[in-house]
Specification:
CATH topology of the largest domain in chain A: TIM Barrel
Largest sheet of chain A: 8 strands, parallel, barrel
Radius of gyration of chain A: 20 Å
Strand order of the largest sheet of chain A: 1-2-3-4-5-6-7-8
Number of domains of chain A: 2
Strand content of chain A: 5-15%
Helix content of chain A: 40-55%
Number of helices of chain A: 14
CATH superfamily of the largest domain in chain A: Aldolase class I
Organism (chains A, B): Lachnotalea glycerini
Protein name (chains A, B): 4-hydroxy-2-oxovalerate aldolase
Low-confidence stretches of chain A: 336-349
Keywords (chains A, B): Aromatic hydrocarbons catabolism, Lyase, Manganese, Metal-binding
Largest interface: A-B, 41 and 42 residues
Shape of chain A: globular
CATH architecture of the largest domain in chain A: Alpha-Beta Barrel
Catalytic activity (chains A, B): (S)-4-hydroxy-2-oxopentanoate = acetaldehyde + pyruvate; (S)-4-hydroxy-2-oxohexanoate = propanal + pyruvate
CATH class of the largest domain in chain A: Alpha Beta
Family (chains A, B): Belongs to the 4-hydroxy-2-oxovalerate aldolase family.
Distance between the termini of chain A: 68 Å
Oligomer: homodimer
Chain lengths: 349, 349
């Protein structure tokens, strides 16, 4: 039984839940308590990774540098990591400074069919002797064979492992089982899983992934995260221990962080609302929730219909502009059921 | 593929979450919206069932009669049900009046090894031509063979089905699989499952139960319920539909209840805190949370240690008095690790 690694994304993916407004104090208190819990790595940064702070996806309170610098002071037993999506961040402006600031782990992410875009970044981090993982986002949108090709590319670039990100929380347990089993059997590097809880299955999916050979799980404390939230680490550790797995995690200390630290960050964490569930069903990136609600209000349409259309169009992360377009079309009775040309002709009549 | 029935416990089990303070208005608005969603039955009442309102387990705002009477006015397409634990309620004072008030469904519950205590009540309700289900609470505490005996007893009394209640949210998916498969294969009546979300597995456990032959699931909207909460109906319906099951539930209407009605009842629903998880790990009835926290505060001890001791003693629902005793012993350094006699001698020194 290979050693399990838990990567704590609370201060990165969790950041979405509070619109990236984590403070220095939040990060300090969190890292001080969390360092001795037994996580492999704690990741910090904007919800969309290094370099992502912007008007389009949300400005963060602190710069990437401030977050890394703060966390670096308090993490001794746990590695410090960052996440970056090429396009949102660049090697020169974001990755290199982060490495210089003393991070240990780099996770480079891309849409599940675009591993090519991560080559330079993975190689750069490997050459800097950092531990590097590739992340395939919205993994449910590619066939298992295609995923295998993408994993093998990342392996060739020097990634230590590849993490499948269930960005939309759209996975059923069967989907996780088949995908992780196939990938684990066919590559030598580690396979990881990053659940989201849109269908209430985050813990179950993480557990299923581990049963099928995954050795890395991304989760957060209290499931803190965008929309439906992430895999709740405390619940997963409890399930694993109940099933006889050795986690090397101090569960009581982890629960203390839940009790004592998380209320400083947010006073109502957890609970699936209807948009979370609809995004899970439609397979749409859960972080779209805030722009979807905004556009729905602006155009007076049902936000769930926007999600369904985004799912139909197989929208991926980074395509927030499409939301306004869809909402506008839905609000226009002529345009909503016609193709673009008819819509344009109609608007001229 | 047998028809699936969903029993909505939001206005009964969910009541624990707000200390049984549901109002007439809450019940009215809820039933008006929920009646056309497609639930088989909506259950109303005190969290611990008919007759349970008391200082010990919590006084409810409304009497059982008021709750039944209010719901009865607005449920036409969905059956109205009640839950009763013999001991908390009696035939004469509670069950018979409820039947006279026009309920359709009766659920009679007991500890998982005590089906004998339900015989008179199940027979009474059957003789009144009501649809009757037995409920085996804390089912994880009995062997599968013992559970089978108890289910067969309830079957002989006239129960249409037996629902396994995972009162402590202690079930792993493997446990659910083995138990439900064995029972389904060996009895003719319906088998149901009532998850709790202490280990983040409520939806997964409900799904697993259905895969193994369960045809009844108890859940709540938004997972609203005591402690860790119940199986979130919206998430379960979404998972089932994604897996090709016919649920006959209007998911959008169900999601509307989540969005529009639940905020009237409680403004922060969901999220597993540390006590929820510890109670799931120790296998202790989750509704102990409030008295455990109170006793922990009173005696200045760690509430998780109280839970672990309750689990060690295999405490069951109704034994809230034991909590004070344990907390007292934990707070007394002499008494906490000794047996009762030594404790008594020690306190005389």
């Amino acid at each position: 039984m290979k050693k399990l690694s838990f990567i704590d994304a609370t201060l990165r993916d969790g950041s979405h839940a509070i619109k990236h407004q984590l403070t220095v104090s939040n990060i300090e208190n969190y890292c001080i308590e969390m360092d001795s819990v037994g996580m492999d790595t704690i990741v910090v940064g904007h919800g969309n990774g290094l370099g992502a702070s912007s008007l389009q996806v949300g400005l963060s309170l602190l710069s990437d540098y401030e977050m890394i610098h703060t966390a670096r002071k308090y993490l001794e037993r746990t590695k410090l990591g960052v996440y970056m999506i090429p396009g949102f961040g660049t090697i020169h402006d974001d990755l290199e400074p982060a490495i210089n600031a003393g991070i240990d782990v780099v996770k480079i992410g891309c849409h599940c069919t675009e591993a090519d875009t991560t080559r330079q970044h993975i190689e750069f981090a490997r050459n800097a002797n950092k531990e590097v993982y590739g992340v395939l986002m919205m993994y449910h949108m590619a066939s298992i064979n295609k995923l295998l090709e993408e994993v093998q590319k990342m392996e060739s670039y020097g990634a230590k492992g590849v993490i499948l990100m269930d960005s939309a929380g759209a996975s059923t347990m069967e989907m996780v089982k088949k995908t992780v089993a196939t990938l684990s059997e066919n590559v030598n590097i580690e396979i990881g899983f990053h659940p989201h809880n849109n269908l209430g299955l985050a813990v179950a999916n993480a557990y299923t992934a581990i049963q099928e050979g995954a050795t890395i799980i991304d989760g957060t404390v209290k499931g803190f995260g965008a929309g439906a939230g992430n895999c709740q680490l405390e619940a997963l550790i409890a399930v694993l221990e109940k099933n006889g797995y050795a986690t090397n995690v101090d569960l009581y200390k982890l629960l203390d962080v839940n009790d004592n630290i998380m209320p400083q960050i947010s006073n109502c964490i957890g609970g699936l609302d209807s948009l979370s569930i609809v995004s899970g069903m439609s397979g749409v990136f859960s972080a779209f929730k805030i722009p979807v609600l905004k556009a729905a209000k602006q155009f007076d349409v049902d936000p769930r219909d926007i999600f369904n259309e985004l799912g139909r169009r197989k929208a991926v992360g980074g395509q927030e502009d499409m939301i306004i377009e869809i909402a506008e079309q839905l609000s226009n009775p002529l345009g909503s059921n016609e193709d673009d040309l008819t819509y344009q002709i109609g608007s001229l009549l």
